[in-house]
Write a structure and sequence with these properties.
single chain; rod-shaped
Amino acid sequence: MGKLKDFMSRFWNDEEGLQTLEILLIIAVVVFIALLFRETIIGWVNKLIGFGNDNIDDFNPGN
């Protein structure tokens, strides 16, 4: 029983896992913001893709 108590005490006081938790929270915030503004982001990406397609269509390497 002493080994289990000692292990749990060391596990509880270990601060290595805090970095993982912080990264998960940052990812959660980024995903939430992306979902909140998804229509705006999709419109912006479509506009960029359309702009690129128009420029490719106008490009003529023969001139």
